[in-house]
Design brief:
Number of helices: 13
Distance between the termini: 81 Å
CATH class of the largest domain: Alpha Beta
Helix content: 40-55%
Number of strands: 5
CATH topology of the largest domain: Rossmann fold
Strand order of the largest sheet: 2-1-3-4-5
C-alpha cells in the first residue's frame, strides 16, 4: 500500500474520531446525571466525559477535561435557577466549549436570560432524546438551537435590553415591603407566579406586580437575576428574620 493511501486512511480515522462529541452534564442530582448519561450510552456520536451537580464541580471538570458541549440544567444542587449563575462564567472562561441550557419549561424570560448569558441552544427536559441529540449536533456545528418564537423573543430583548446585571446595594433590598419579600422568598424556592399566588392567597396578577416592583427597586429585570442577586447577597444572621427566610435569602430578606 502506497504512503499516500496510508495517509488518506489515517486522515479518515482522525476525522472519524473527531466526530465524537465530548459532553459534560450538569444537573441537580447525581441520579439525574446518570440517567442522561445512560441515555447517551448507545449513541456512538456522543461521549459523556464528566458530570456535575454544583458550580464548583462544573468548573473543576472543565479545567481537567476537554469538553465540546456543556449541558447545564437551570437547577443545580444549590437550588432553583442556580444553573444560570454558571452560564456566563463558562462562556468567559471556556470560550471553545459551547453551552446548552436545559430548562424545565421554555418560559420566554428564561430563554432570553440563557442566551444573554452566552448559551448556543436551549431545550426542555421533557423533550425526547433524538431531539436533544439534534440540538447537540447542531450546536457543535456552530448553529443556534431555538425555535422561531424563542429566537424572535431573544432578538426583541437584545434590541432593547441592557446586559445581565446584579444589583449590590443592601439599601435597595431594605426598600422592599414585607409582601414583596414574601413573594421573593417563594420565587427563590422555585415557585411559579401562580403557585406563589395560591400560597399567599393573592391573584397571579398581583404577584406579577409585586415582582415588577421588586425588579425596579433592585435594578434587575427577571426572576433569574433575582435568584442570582439572592445567592450573591451577604449572609449575616439576624434574630429578627424567620429562620426559613434566612436559609433562602439571609441578608436580602432582613427587616
Amino acid at each position: 500500500m502506497g504512503s499516500s493511501k496510508i495517509q488518506q486512511l489515517q486522515a479518515r480515522h482522525t476525522d472519524s474520531k473527531r466526530q465524537v462529541i465530548d459532553l459534560l452534564i450538569a444537573d441537580e442530582s447525581s441520579m439525574h446525571c446518570q440517567l442522561l448519561k445512560a441515555a447517551f450510552r448507545y449513541r456512538s456520536s456522543f461521549r459523556v466525559v464528566a458530570s456535575a451537580v454544583s458550580r464548583q464541580e462544573i468548573i473543576d471538570a472543565m479545567n481537567s477535561r476537554n469538553v465540546d458541549i456543556a449541558l447545564i440544567n437551570e437547577t443545580l444542587q444549590e437550588g432553583p435557577l442556580t444553573g444560570f449563575g454558571v452560564l456566563s462564567e463558562l462562556h468567559s472562561l471556556f470560550p471553545k466549549t459551547r453551552v446548552i441550557a436545559m430548562l424545565k419549561a421554555a418560559h420566554e424570560d428564561l430563554v432570553i436570560d440563557a442566551f444573554r448569558a452566552g448559551v448556543k441552544g436551549v431545550f426542555c427536559d421533557a423533550e425526547p432524546l433524538h431531539v436533544i441529540c439534534k440540538c447537540i449536533s447542531a450546536v457543535r456545528e456552530g448553529q443556534i438551537w431555538a425555535n422561531s418564537s424563542q429566537l424572535s423573543a431573544v432578538l426583541d430583548a437584545f434590541a432593547g435590553a441592557s446586559p445581565l446585571r446584579l444589583a449590590n446595594s443592601q439599601e435597595s433590598a431594605r426598600r422592599l415591603t414585607k409582601r414583596e419579600k414574601d413573594v421573593v422568598r417563594l420565587v427563590v424556592e422555585g415557585y411559579t407566579n401562580r403557585q406563589a399566588a395560591e400560597k399567599l392567597g393573592l391573584t397571579e396578577h398581583t404577584v406579577s406586580n409585586y415582582l415588577f416592583r421588586t425588579y425596579e427597586k433592585l435594578g434587575i429585570s427577571s426572576r433569574v437575576e433575582l435568584v442570582l442577586y439572592a445567592l450573591k447577597s451577604p449572609q449575616p444572621r439576624s434574630s429578627h428574620v424567620d429562620s426559613d427566610c434566612q436559609e433562602l435569602f439571609p441578608q436580602f430578606l432582613a427587616t
